[in-house]
Write a sequence for this structure.
């Protein structure tokens, strides 16, 4: 994009700045729109699974429901509990929301269509997703109320635990792709499976990692069956209990932006990103971004399907799954993958 | 131009937030300032061209260590009046530490001015087309492999030590054994009885 601005006769430094700001807007604004529509899709999918109709009043098929909700929330009064820690109480939802947007900077939407093409892209995503926990902890503590605090403690332990296994799973992908750059990881998947399937997931060694990553991403975003942070039967609404109006909406938006990010990571890291599913020339006629969106939507459907059908885990079971199942298996898999690559690629 | 601006921005925020760590009244606020300092230090690393170290700083310190700090500080019920009560008693010790630190600073600045060791030349980045991660990996796994493995063993021992120190076996706790639960079949878990009217059954 920078070249376009330079060709319009702009100073290169200014062109870079303007191109970056345009890129940020091009990602953030459609993302917000996508979040609004995805909340609607989520509710429709749960409704269909529960044999209900879901939102169907505002707009055709209820399509405008999320916008109506947003407007309603926007007009409400922000209530701050009198004993809350005012500054942190207001900063917490902003942190959640900002962090949810930040990680999108390194997601490749097409060959070369990435805002920041850095060679530590995957590490950047790990770093940013590890920041997400602060919004939850701070909101829980600053509310000065016991249910949010319990929820914050659960959330932080849960996110830290699953980040460990996610890190090890990603190492497996990096070993195969030979790069931390997201675009390189996607390119490495071209014809990876049996010479014609564009996905790491079709590799027998990486398929278990793909499954573990899907489950870990459910846990990392605190979606059902791992939504212990907002278990309504025990904790009212978890860390969001004391929030109202826009500060509540920011949590809501950030949470769904994170869910979309995790779906995107599943698509990009294991299922070929913007590549078509099969390495066959006519399929490349479809723009890569459409393949990517199709994959993201598929994973989002899986997320809501799981949320609608699976009961909530107990806390000790969640910890057992993270530390006693995923961690040893992902560690073992690093040994297997490095051994396999040493035998085949580097000998 | 933008590097210079970014450097002064990051450096100012690092120093200011490090000062705020000490001056903040609320310990939770202190930890938050500490996190801001870590974050901007990572920005400085990025400017120095060490993007791998910068990411590790955020992942390890901001993502894990500071979360644990925050955790502990939030759980503590700190009474500030009690904290200040010992001020006079600890004043001599504190003053001694301050004097030692000040003396070290003077020596450091003096040595730097004398220009004994040319640190600037040694710290100059080696221009290479390889990425940061590859360079560090090549050094760690060839030249410094024994030190690297020794560090790994120290960490392993520390980990085992922490587990041994905190581990305790309590009697009378019912722990869920998931594989045993999955192995259980209906035949051994259920019993079909047909009691006569008014007879009931024994469990």
């Amino acid at each position: 994009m920078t070249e376009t601005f330079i060709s319009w006769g702009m100073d290169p430094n200014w062109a870079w700045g303007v191109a970056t700001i345009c890129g940020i807007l091009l990602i953030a604004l459609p993302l917000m729109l996508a979040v609004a529509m995805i909340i609607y899709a989520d509710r429709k999918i749960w409704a269909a699974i529960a044999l209900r109709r879901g939102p169907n009043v505002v707009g055709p098929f209820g399509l405008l429901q999320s916008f109506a909700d947003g407007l309603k929330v926007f007009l409400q009064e922000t209530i701050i509990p009198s004993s809350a820690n005012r500054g942190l109480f207001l900063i917490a939802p902003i942190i959640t929301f900002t962090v949810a947007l930040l990680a999108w900077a390194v997601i490749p939407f097409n060959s070369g269509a990435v805002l920041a093409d850095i060679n530590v892209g995957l590490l950047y995503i790990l770093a940013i997703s590890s920041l997400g926990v602060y919004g939850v902890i701070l909101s829980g503590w600053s509310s000065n109320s016991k249910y949010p605090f319990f929820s914050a403690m659960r959330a932080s332990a849960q996110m830290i635990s699953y980040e460990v296994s996610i890190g090890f799973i990603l190492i497996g992908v990096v070993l195969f792709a030979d790069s931390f750059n997201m675009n390189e990881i996607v390119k490495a998947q071209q014809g990876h499976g049996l010479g014609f399937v564009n996905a790491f997931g079709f590799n027998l060694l990486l398929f278990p990692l793909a499954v573990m990553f899907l489950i870990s991403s459910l846990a990392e975003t605190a979606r059902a069956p791992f939504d212990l942070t907002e278990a309504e039967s025990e904790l009212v609404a978890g860390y969001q209990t004391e929030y109202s109006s826009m500060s509540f909406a920011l949590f809501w938006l950030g949470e769904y932006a994170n869910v979309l990010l995790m779906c995107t990571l599943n698509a990009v890291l294991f299922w070929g990103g913007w590549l078509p599913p099969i390495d066959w020339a006519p399929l490349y006629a479809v723009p890569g971004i459409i393949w990517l969106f199709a994959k993201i939507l598929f994973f989002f459907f899986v997320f809501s399907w799981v949320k609608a059908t699976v009961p909530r885990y107990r806390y000790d079971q969640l910890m057992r799954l993270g530390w006693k199942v995923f961690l040893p298996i992902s560690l073992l898999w690093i040994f297997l993958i490095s051994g396999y690559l040493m035998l085949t690629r580097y000998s | 131009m933008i590097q210079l601006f970014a450097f002064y921005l990051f450096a100012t925020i690092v120093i200011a937030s490090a000062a705020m760590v000490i001056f903040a009244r609320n310990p939770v606020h202190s930890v938050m300032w500490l996190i801001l300092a870590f974050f901007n230090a990572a920005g400085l690393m990025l400017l120095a061209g060490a993007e791998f170290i910068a990411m590790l700083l955020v992942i390890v310190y901001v993502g894990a260590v500071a979360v644990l700090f925050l955790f502990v500080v939030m759980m503590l019920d700190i009474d500030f009046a009690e904290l200040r009560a010992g001020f006079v008693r600890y004043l001599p010790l504190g003053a001694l530490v301050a004097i030692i630190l000040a003396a070290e600073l003077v020596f450091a600045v003096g040595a730097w001015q004398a220009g004994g060791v040319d640190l600037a030349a040694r710290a100059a980045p080696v221009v290479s087309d390889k990425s940061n991660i590859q360079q560090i990996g090549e050094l760690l796994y060839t030249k410094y492999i024994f030190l690297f493995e020794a560090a790994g063993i120290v960490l392993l021992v520390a980990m085992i030590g922490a587990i041994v120190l905190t581990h305790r076996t309590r009697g009378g706790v019912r722990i869920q054994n998931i594989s045993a639960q999955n192995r259980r079949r209906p035949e051994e878990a259920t019993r079909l009885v047909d009691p006569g009217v008014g007879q009931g059954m024994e469990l």
